[in-house]
Amino acid sequence: MSLSHLRPPPSLRRVLLSQPLLPRTSQNTYATQTGSSSSSKSGSATRRRNVTVLSDDGRYAWGELSGREKVARATQQSFNFVVVLAGVVLTGGVFTLLYTEVFSPNSKTWQFEKAVERIKNDPRCENILGDKREIKAFGESTFSRWARNRPIASKVETDGAGREHMRMNFHVVGPRNEGIVFVHMVKPPDSYEWEYRLLALEVKGYQRVVLEERHDAKLGGEVKIFGIRFK
Questions:
Q1: 5-39 burial, b for 16+ CB within 10 Å, e for fewer?
Q2: pLDDT at 230 over 50
Q3: Are 131 and 174 in contact (CB under 8 A)?
Q4: What's the pTM?
Q5: Which residue in 125, 153, 121 sits closest to 140, CA to CA?
Q6: What residues pair up with 167 in beta bridges, in sequence order?
Q7: In this structure, what DSSP letter does residue 46 have?
Q8: CA-to-CA distance for 205 and 116, rounded, in angstroms?
Q9: Residue among 172, 154, 174 nearest 164 (CA)
Q10: Which of 47, 102, 190, 204 is surrounded by the most beta carbons within 10 Å?
Q11: 153-158 vs 178-187, strand pairing mode
Q12: pLDDT tens per residue across span 22-56
C-alpha cells in the first residue's frame, strides 16, 4: 500500500520548515543577554577615577591624562622633588658640620683629643696624675644640671699677621691628683696645620709640666679666657 497520500501538501511543508526550532530561540536569547552583559562590563571598565595631586599613583600614562590631571601630576612631582632635594641638602649639612666640628684636624674636638693623648702618654704627667688608663679629661662645669657634656673653654682668633690662634684649657683627673691643661696653638696663613706654642699641665702643689713651648714675641701678650690666663 502506498503512503504517498499521507504526505502533507507542498504548501504546508514550506510553512513548517520556515518556523524556527525552540532550542535555537533559547540560544539566541542567551547570546543576546551575554552580549549585553559584556557591553556593560566593558563600559564599567572604561571608567576611572580622576587623577589629583593626592590620588595620583602613576598607574595612568601621561597621554591618558586630561589637562587638569597633567597639572596635578606635575605639581605632585615638583613637590616630591623639592622634598628629596631638601633631604639631600640637610644630610649634606649634617655631614659637613660633623666633619668640621669633630673629625677635621682643624676642629677643636680633634685638637682636644690629641692634647689628652699627649698628656696620658707623658711619663711626668702620669707620675703626677696616676695610671693613664684611669685619667679622664673634661671641660668646664655648667650651671645647667641637665647638661651632660662639659664644654671646653676655648677661643679662636686671628692676629694682625693673619695667623689663627687657638687657645683652650680643660681639666684632667687621675687616681692621684687632678689638674688643668693649657693649650695654645697657631696656624700660619700659608698652612693648614696647627702648631703648638704651649702645651702644659698644672697641678696644685707640683711644678708645671711643659710638654710644648715656643716663644714668639709677635704672637701677642697675655690672654684671659674664663678666668684662666694664657701667656
A1: eeeeeeeeeeeeeeeeeeeeeeeeeeeeeeeeeee
A2: no
A3: yes
A4: 0.55
A5: 153
A6: 155, 184
A7: T
A8: 21
A9: 154
A10: 102
A11: unpaired
A12: 555 445 544 455 555 555 444 444 577 788 877 77
Cα gap 193→109, rounded to integer Å: 14
Lookup: cell for 99: 666633619
Lowest mean pLDDT among 28-42, 135-149, 191-205: 28-42
Question: Residues 6 or more apart from 201 whose CB is under 8 A from it?
Answer: 119, 122, 125, 128, 172, 179, 180, 181, 182, 208, 209, 211
Of 194, 168, 112, which is closest to residue 120 (Cα–Cα)? Answer: 112
> 49: closest CA among 30, 34, 29, 69?
69
Cβ–Cβ contacts within 10 Å for residue 229, how many?
10
> Which pLDDT does position 77 carry in this prediction?
86
As given in the structure block, the three cell numbers for residue 96 are: 659637613
The pLDDT of residue 160 is above 90: no
- Residue count of the chain, please give it: 231
Q: 101 in helix, strand or coil?
A: helix
C-alpha atoms less than 13 angstroms from C-alpha of 48 in its C-beta half-sphere: 14
Helix or strand or coil: residue 127?
A: helix
How confident is residue 102, by pLDDT bands cut at 50, 70 and 90? Answer: low
- CA 7 to chain centroid: 99
